[in-house]
Amino acid sequence: MTNYYEVLDKNLVAVDCVIFGYDISDKELKLLLVKRKFEPEYGKWTLPGGFVKKDEGVLEAACRVLYQLTGLKDVYMEQSYAWGDVNRDSGGRVITISHFALIKTHELDPVMIEASVAHWRSISRLPILIFDHRKIIDRAHKELIDRIKVKPVGFELLPEKFTLVQLQDLYEAIYQRQIDKRNFRKKIISMNLLEKLDEKEKETSKKGAYYYRFIPSRYEDFKRQGFYFNLDVQ
Q1: pTM (two decimals)
Q2: What is the pLDDT of residues 184-204, one digit of tens each?
Q3: Domains in the chain, ordered, with CATH?
Q4: Contact assessment for residue 48 and residue 16, using Cβ atoms and an 8 Å cutoff
Q5: Residue 177 CB burial class (10 angstroms; 0-12, 13-18, ≥19)
Q6: Residue 151: CB partners within 8 Å, gap ≥ 6?
Q7: In whole angstroms, how far apart are CA 124 and each of 23, 31, 175, 200, 223?
Q8: Does residue 16 contact residue 96 with C-beta atoms inside 8 Å?
Q9: How far apart are CA 99 and CA 139, in angstroms?
Q10: C-alpha span between 47 and 17 (Å, rounded)
């Protein structure tokens, strides 16, 4: 009997990674992009990606791509969307599963970044990208905005200690708009998820602002009690 699978069309399956980072000094949300190293579209800007190997799952492939580029493991990553338009890739029939990841830029392995010739580019000033990669980025950015409203995932982009001003700057960079200072601080403080430290940040002002840190264990305890994170601010 003929194996039914053998007569079916074969498609390539790939992963593309939208890797978000936050520059706390520039106050900008950024993406890690690379120059494509093969045809078609050789030398053009692209998302980091690769084909799924026969012995790995889709998430494993995305984690492999991210590790090979950054040297990081165990970072926040979500599967985003499946992109399967017939003519999306001029090189062949390729279905890609996009993922977005949040990384702390100061934790990157500089040797690996230099070797991969990766570059940080501001989300507000992106170059022209190959295929449908701009659509992939736009969807991931929208999903990130949706997540930070209902989950404390924004802290994945910040150093361990930060000021409330720096935290608001991050949210404004992700939202790509200004938000009300008083409303933001009132909401984040009322959730009791931050620990105020005795140390102050004095590089940007003489008086200085107190540092805070996010307490993940407190969030998990509150969540088990029915706590709902809500930082949807105007």
Answers
A1: 0.93
A2: 999 999 999 999 999 998 877
A3: 9-150 (3.90.79.10), 158-224 (1.10.10.10)
A4: yes
A5: exposed
A6: 229
A7: 13, 10, 11, 31, 34
A8: yes
A9: 10
A10: 6
